[in-house]
Design a protein that fits this description.
The protein is of the alpha+beta class and 362 residues long. The chain is built from twelve helices and four strands; from the N terminus they run αααααβαααβββαααα. The longest helix is centred in the C-terminal third of the chain and has 27 residues.
Length: 362
């Protein structure tokens, strides 16, 4: 047994060395730096920060490098590292109305105070390979631009003035912390939003798409999508007031959804909401659509059996780290389990053959 264990350890050590060699690649090519990943693969970095629940571009870039570009593995690394960090306190809620927006669009109102700000986006590109990038030349300079500063009102406030959209709820009760407490059902909206923020982008996107195809009767408009930086403040007990400790880049999406009304509520629009670290607009929009689908019960709507309406299905399967653990554990040794299954199948086959022989003899 001891020899087998030592042999296994040597095999694992060799696998680690081989992995490091594969990660480095051809040594004739310059090694990729953390700064290069952070600055030039920023959307990948943003996803790792969002689903890893840790806002640190340098650590996210390091995780991507260590994981050889496997973003789910990088997210796993970030979450594992996050558990080792001390917690000094909680910041104040950020004010996205004061966001310095470098992208702000609305699909519901053309003329916005401050105007539509297209920002850095793939939306209007032709999706053709740009071979100029292979030439390693400097990119063309963008024209001078300024982020929208100061208070930038949300588009839904225009609808709210006429009572055409449900009132946004404000609850000062501290929500449960999903990073410290396991998910429990039933989950209120605050907990669901936490889970969706950390959820796998592809899974959330698939669920959101299903609601658009009729699985949930969820016809939505993007009321507003905004990307920009917001200050983060924390109250210091010794000072007795909050001070700014930094800033984070966020993507926020509010959807406007149809609602026919109920016995107690007039016909009006309802809201879906998404808020994610970094420029992660596909995830934020998907999150808002799924958030709205999960609200069917509180809005008095019918459950049509759509996957996106099933909170337990959505929340328990959306976490890619949990899913990865269950999926990849079947690669590990299951010799005893399989041998018992194998012996059972052999026994059943022997019994079936014996039965056939007996029937043939009769």
């Amino acid at each position: 047994m001891y020899v087998a264990v030592k042999g296994g350890e040597r095999a694992i050590e060799n696998a680690h060395a081989w992995l490091a060699e594969e990660r480095r690649g051809n040594t004739d090519i310059a090694e990729l730096s953390i700064a290069q990943i952070r600055e030039q693969l920023s959307l990948a970095v943003n996803r790792v920060m969002a689903e890893g629940s840790l806002y640190d571009p340098d650590l996210a870039a390091l995780a991507i490098k260590q994981a050889r570009g496997d973003l789910i593995e990088a997210i796993f690394l970030i979450r594992a590292y996050r558990t080792t960090l001390p917690r000094f306190g909680a910041s104040e809620p950020v004010d996205t109305g004061a966001m310095a927006c470098n992208r702000r669009i609305s699909a519901t109102f053309k003329d916005l105070p401050g105007g539509q700000v297209l920002g850095p986006t793939f939306d209007y590109t032709h999706r053709l390979l740009d071979f100029k990038l292979a030439a390693d030349g400097d990119p063309p300079k963008a024209p001078t631009r300024d982020a929208q500063l100061g208070d930038v009102p949300h588009v839904t406030e225009f609808l709210n003035r006429e009572g055409l959209i449900e009132e946004a709820t404000h609850d000062d009760t501290p929500p449960p912390d999903l990073t410290r407490e396991p998910l429990e059902m039933p989950a209120d909206r605050a907990l669901r939003l936490q889970a969706l923020t950390r959820a796998d982008e592809g899974f959330t996107l698939g669920l959101a798409y299903s609601t658009q195809r009729g699985y949930g009767r969820n016809h939505a408009f993007v009321g507003e999508l905004r990307i920009g930086s917001v200050p983060v403040e924390m109250e210091i007990p010794e000072l007795g007031f909050a001070i700014e400790i930094g800033e984070v880049t966020l993507t926020e999406c509010e959807t406007v959804n149809q609602f026919t009304g109920s016995k107690t509520e007039p016909p009006q629009f309802t809201r879906g909401y998404g808020l994610v670290f970094g420029q992660t607009e596909r995830k934020a929009i998907s999150m808002a659509l799924v958030d709205r689908a999960l609200r069917w019960e509180e809005l008095g709507e019918d459950n049509v059996g759509a996957p996106a309406q099933d909170a337990e299905f959505v929340l328990y399967h959306a976490d890619n780290i949990q899913a990865t653990g269950f999926l990849e554990h079947i690669k590990l040794p299951h010799y005893v389990d399989f041998q018992s299954e194998l012996e059972l199948v052999r026994k059943l086959r022997r019994e079936a053959e014996a039965q056939q022989l007996q029937e043939a003899a009769e």
